[in-house]
Design goal:
This protein starts with a strand and ends in a 13-residue tail after the last helix. A five-stranded antiparallel β-sheet has the order 1-2-8-4-5, with no helix packed on it. It has a three-stranded antiparallel β-sheet with strand order 3-7-6, with no helix packed on it. It is elongated, with a radius of gyration of 20 Å. It has two domains: about 1-55 and about 140-185, Phage gp6-like head-tail connector protein (Hypothetical protein yqbg, Orthogonal Bundle), CATH 1.10.3230.30; about 60-140, no CATH class. The protein has helices spanning about 15-20, 30-55, 150-165, 180-185; strands spanning about 1-5, 60-65, 75, 80-90, 95-100, 105-110, 115-120, 130-140. About 25% of the residues lie in helices and about 20% in strands.
Length: about 200
């Protein structure tokens, strides 16, 4: 189970640029309410693009909770790019917690499949009825300018569609627009069944 520990702050989202992208006017009395809606569309588009690509666009903290390792000597992380692993905790059935020795494992940075890899024969043992929690930071960077241009444009295009169809629900359940799909295609991770990674 992947838990997002920190959210993307409103200040990081490019509200003014998105407003310009939509060619909206300024100086009206209801700008505050409109800005809240625009932020919601940006967040929804960001989440949709992240879900389709398995990439965290804006850097934030996550915890991955596992009851068993996928393989004994490595564990892939479900989202990329991973910038750092803060801790790997082993928790027993009674809730007793111990920090795994950082010398026993290492982070392998990979844009498609980042992973934790044992430095020896195996990753730290997970006790019966216990779990392991991996705290890590994932994302291209802490600010919007850190995003690759094509992913930033895909978020804008999808958020614009959400804005355009906000009243009639025409975009509900629809596939991603072709332009958005084309922009994110190279960032999608292809999963191979049975393969390590």
């Amino acid at each position: 189970m992947l838990k997002e520990l920190t959210a993307v702050p409103d200040a990081v989202l490019p509200l003014a640029e998105f407003r310009d992208h939509l060619r909206l006017g300024t100086g009206f009395s209801d700008t505050g309410a409109e800005d809240a809606a625009l932020l919601a569309y940006l967040r929804a588009a960001l989440a949709a693009i992240e879900g389709r690509t398995a990439k965290a666009l804006i850097a934030r903290d996550f915890t991955l909770v596992l009851t068993a390792w996928r393989w004994g000597d490595l564990q892939t992380l479900p989202i990329a790019p991973v910038r750092a692993v803060a801790a790997l905790r082993v928790i027993d059935r009674a809730g007793g917690e111990s920090l795994a020795d950082a010398a026993a494992w290492r982070l392998i940075e990979d844009l498609a499949r980042p992973r934790i890899e044992a430095r020896g024969a195996a990753l730290p043992a997970i006790p019966a009825g216990g779990r392991v929690e991996i705290d890590f930071t994932a994302g291209f960077g802490p600010v919007w300018a850190d995003l690759p241009v094509d992913l930033a444009q895909a978020v804008f295009l999808l958020a614009a569609q959400y804005y355009e169809f906000r009243h009639d629900g025409a975009g509900e359940g629809a596939a991603l627009p072709f332009g958005v799909s084309a922009l994110i295609e190279r960032w999608r991770t292809v999963r191979v069944l049975g393969g390590r990674g």
